[in-house]
Design goal:
The chain has a 4-stranded antiparallel β-sheet, covered by helices on one side. The chain is built from 1 helix and 8 strands, in the order αββββββββ. The chain has one helix at 11-62; strands at residues 66-71, 76-81, 84-90, 96-100, 104-107, 118-124, 127-136, 142-144. The protein has 159 residues and is α+β, with helices and mostly antiparallel strands. Helices cover 33% and strands 30% of the residues.
Length: 159
């Protein structure tokens, strides 16, 4: 015969632990969803920046004009050279605001841009602090600016 007290957890102890886990998950889950959405916006901004860099490099390699067509309504971005589509991407418009100062950007055979003040913004829920700005200057250099900042380093007011 066994004497003494049985070891283990009581039902009340288990219920308290489960209640604490439920409270912690209700606190953490909304923050996790916001983080995921912020990462999606950042990924789209990085992809747009990569498309512009690709177009410039292709204009230098091919020694011909390369055109970047941007349709902000559908989120479609195409890189074209001599009528041939070199690369195409569609940006997710669900909850993401995508604007562009010009619907088309052309890189000359020497890599310079025909538009010296090109600017695109990619934001979430029209929140400037969650947005990204991409600029292209006359030399053709494109820059993806830090989150929430304009090209001059000031806060991005809105999208």
């Amino acid at each position: 015969m066994r004497t003494g007290r049985a070891s283990g957890f009581t039902l009340i102890e288990l219920m308290v632990v489960l209640a604490l886990l439920a409270v912690l998950s209700f606190i953490a889950v909304p923050g996790l969803f916001g983080l995921i959405r912020d990462n999606q916006v950042q990924a789209q901004a990085e992809e747009m920046s990569a498309m512009l860099q690709y177009a410039r490099s292709e204009s230098l390699i091919r020694r011909r004009a390369v055109i970047v067509n941007i349709d902000v309504a559908s989120g479609q971005v195409d890189v074209l050279a001599g009528g041939e589509t070199l690369r195409s991407a569609t940006f997710d418009a669900n909850g993401v605001d995508f604007t562009s100062s010009h619907p088309q950007l052309t890189y000359r055979p020497n890599g310079t841009s025909t538009i010296g003040d090109f600017r695109a913004t990619i934001c979430r829920d029209n929140l400037g602090e969650r947005g990204y700005v991409i600029t292209v200057i006359n030399s053709g250099q494109s820059t993806l600016h830090p989150q929430g900042l304009n090209e001059n380093g000031t806060a991005l007011g809105g999208c």
